[in-house]
Write a structure and sequence with these properties.
The N and C termini lie close together (12 Å). It contains twelve helices and 18 strands. By secondary structure, the protein is of the alpha+beta class. The structure holds zinc ion.
């Protein structure tokens, strides 16, 4: 089987999709279910139909484009990613996996290959948390990680619920029906830019993901006592920001002392009230994002943070409330998918790195219901979620080629 990835077509499709955006080029903004997003989805669907794929959409807007295999009732082999983009993002996050996946299917078709099991391109709906505050809504529902009832209650910034928004956008039907039946996928592979610097640093074009780290995040509110910055003497203070500062360092320490470099903790939000130069902070709202590839270790670090909350609260006489926003389990990638990808790399003499996905992806949730793997390609300086995000056409092509061969291997040949 000799596969030809049409680099020029793939590249020009990436540019065309990037132009369907609510931001000035080269920035891309495509928030889920906006008119721009709907236009981009329609464009992708028309490309899939042009390739002879059978397209369906579910109630949350996941798009399935299927190349029927010789045994159409057998579980499909899936590939895909997302096309929604956060405000002021780049052209490649998600898109490489969608258009690269489509190009992989077209290359297989043109080579004369006939799959035994069907091969299906999946465009996940609402991967980015921009609109509804939770990432990977489409794949959470597909995998049953999030219940339809919980999803329906999520609201966007205008107070519109998921149900209102999706129905306005033309997605009817029940969210209950989004969950895939067990055994739907024989295997799933997602092609994605690395969103980190390791491939570029090691001058390697391909990364085969062995595990996907997963976040747990906390929303924390510290309630102290305000007062005049001159009037209240130090022994009498209950400064909420000083307590928050200790807690931030406790989170850092919990990650640093876990014993593994894979544990990372971040406080990315810290709102201080009232925020005046001569006023003691009375209230702080903050978030903690804690990630690891190992669930027990992450839980250990979380416990250390919770213990610190109790200690700091007592010591400083402040009230600290915590709310767990999410705590997803990390995932190991499936050996058969990793092997299919590695075999293809070796056949071509392509070097590859085995790596951890530090960001999480729809594949994290699909891994709950199917053997799943991910293939990374480099992006310049590791930049992602910004307008200067860039992946080189030859790297994208190489990724699509290895993806195509892995899909063929996993689906089997009908001949
Ligand atoms: Zn992505």
């Amino acid at each position: 089987m000799k596969l030809e990835i049409d680099q020029q077509r793939l590249n020009s499709e990436i540019e065309t999709l990037a132009a369907i955006s609510d931001a000035e080029p080269p920035a891309v903004t495509r928030i889920v279910f906006t008119p721009t997003d709907l236009k981009a989805r329609a464009w992708v669907i028309s490309r899939c139909e042009e390739a002879g794929l059978a397209v369906r959409q579910d109630a949350i807007g996941n798009i399935f484009a299927r190349w029927n295999g010789a045994d159409p009732t057998a579980p499909a082999v899936g590939t895909g990613s997302h096309i929604d983009a956060i405000p002021n993002a780049g052209k490649y996050d998600g898109v490489v996996g969608v258009l690269g996946g489509l190009e992989a299917i077209r290359a297989l078709q043109q080579s004369g290959f006939r799959p035994k099991n069907s091969i299906e391109l999946l465009v996940f709906a609402t991967e980015e948390p921009t609109r509804f505050g939770i990432g990977c809504l489409g794949s959470r529902l597909l995998s049953g990680t999030l219940s339809a009832d919980a999803a329906a209650q999520l609201k966007d910034n205008n107070g519109e619920s998921v149900n209102e928004v999706r129905q306005k956008a033309g997605f009817r039907g029940s969210l209950q029906d989004v969950k895939l039946p067990s055994g739907y996928y024989k295997a799933f592979v997602e092609l994605h830019i690395e969103q980190g610097p390791l491939l570029e640093r090691s001058q390697t074009s391909l990364g085969i993901v062995k595990s996907i780290a997963a976040p747990a995040s906390l929303r924390i509110a510290v309630e102290g006592a305000g007062g005049h910055a001159g009037g209240v003497l130090m022994p009498d203070r209950k400064d909420a920001l000083c307590a928050a500062a200790e807690l931030i360092l406790a989170a850092e320490n919990a990650a640093r002392s876990s014993g593994a470099a894979d544990t990372v903790a971040t406080v990315g939000v810290c709102d201080v009230f009232p925020g005046a130069v001569n006023s003691i902070p009375s209230r702080v709202k903050m978030t903690v994002d804690l990630r690891d590839t190992d669930l027990a270790r992450r839980n250990g670090a979380m416990k250390a943070i919770e213990n610190a909350i109790v200690t700091i609260s007592k010591k400083r006489g402040v009230a600290i409330q915590q709310e767990l926003i999410n705590a997803d389990a990390p995932a190991d990638c499936a050996p058969e998918v990793r092997t299919a990808l590695a075999d293809s790399c070796r056949d071509h003499g392509f070097a590859f790195l085995e790596m951890v996905s530090r960001a999480y992806h729809d594949s994290l949730f699909i891994s709950r219901i199917a053997p799943t793997g991910m293939l990374f390609i480099p992006c310049r300086n590791g930049y992602s979620h910004r307008p200067d995000e860039y992946a080189a056409p030859h790297d994208i092509t190489r990724g699509a080629l290895v993806l195509a061969e892995a899909l063929a291997k996993l689906a089997g040949s009908a001949q």
